[in-house]
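Why do we care about 3D structure at all? Because function follows from shape, and shape follows, mostly, from sequence. That is the central idea of this module. The next example makes it concrete: a single protein chain, its amino acid sequence, and then its structure expressed as tokens.
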Amino acid sequence: MSNKDTPAGDIPEENVDRSAWTRREAIRSSVSVGAALLAFVAAEDANAFDIPLLTPRDRISTGGQFIPAKRSTCYLVDSTLPPTLVPFKAQREAAILKNLGMGSGTKKTPFIEEGINLNNIMKKTVFGTIDMVENLKGGMKANDGKGGEGYATFVFFGTDYSKPEDTNLVMGLLTDITKPRRDLETALGLAFAPLSTQESLDSYLKDGDAAILQKAMEDAGVDSTTFAFQLPFLQYARSKKLILLALSPELVDIRSVRTNGLQSIGAERRGKYVIDPSGFIGQTQDPKFEMYAEKSLFRDFVPLSEKDSTADFFSERILVHECAASVVAKWAISRPDSLVTIVAPSTDVRFMNGINGRVPRIAKHLNPDTTIDDMAVTTILVNPTAQSTLSQSKFLRLEIGTAPENKSYQTKVADYLWFTSMPKVNMLPRLMNGP
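And the structure:
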């Protein structure tokens, strides 16, 4: 007997089309759920309905109030290609600062060498975090056993002098850095102070007379507003018995260079500012430095007159940077295991080729046997913004040198980014899982 001759109720089980039945049941079920949801939305008192499966977990635990996630205030800029941000929890921050105070320096190589593939992204996410924790437990030291004669470390703080929150944060970081340095020589370098004020700074450390120091600063061309912004650092250094170092060329010489070029300063004065003349000239011809000048240094140029040019601005800034680096290198090279902390505008230390990038070269010039290298120099940007890192988006800019022709010279913005309070998540690019 054919199927068409079989009564409807006698259709064999194996010939029943269950797929059609399943679709009908699915549609019928979805309609029922939809009706229930419409009734829920239309109810005058929505709280009368209690549907736990449809209630988000956060609304159950917080009573419907939005509570933003806690984010770190300290981020390592890991030297991957491109750089990535590794957040550190509050309990890890003190360990990082203590290690800097003990002379650890900061590694400039990635924690995990990686190519651009999915496998290595997973390794970075999973194993990189584990390695990071182990490095922290071991001190995260970059000095590889270096120390003693010919070795010193340097920590640069890039700040905005006009912001009290920057000043307070730097002093807080300095407190943790200097704790393990009870019997070791430690200095605080001041990028705003002309070299001629060094004796006045030494006197202030002895007698604490800020009025006399302010008069000396004003005589050297430092305006009262700048001095007021810097006074908390001076008071802090005296309270912690730190050495104060004046790092700036004389302001009259800075203005002269800006107007008439480097040749306008006499050889004797120029010798005080530049103690490694051949290295000073050679660095300006280095392709990596040329990229830094184009991508970072020149971005701060603001003409002072109709005749002012980028060449004049360039001469001014490299003299300022070389002078500061020469002072700190010269002071540290003769003091084994010493530490110099430097407070400078973020524009003078971002992307690692300002004052900070010159220190290893000058130290090598002063002592060919020195073990001071770029790992001995740590750069911390305080409360950075998208604008201060030269980003044209809402995100922080983490590197320069992304074009194919200069990728080999890619340079990260700093070693660490440190914030007074939790930064907005939409300003943190390439954020990795932290320890």
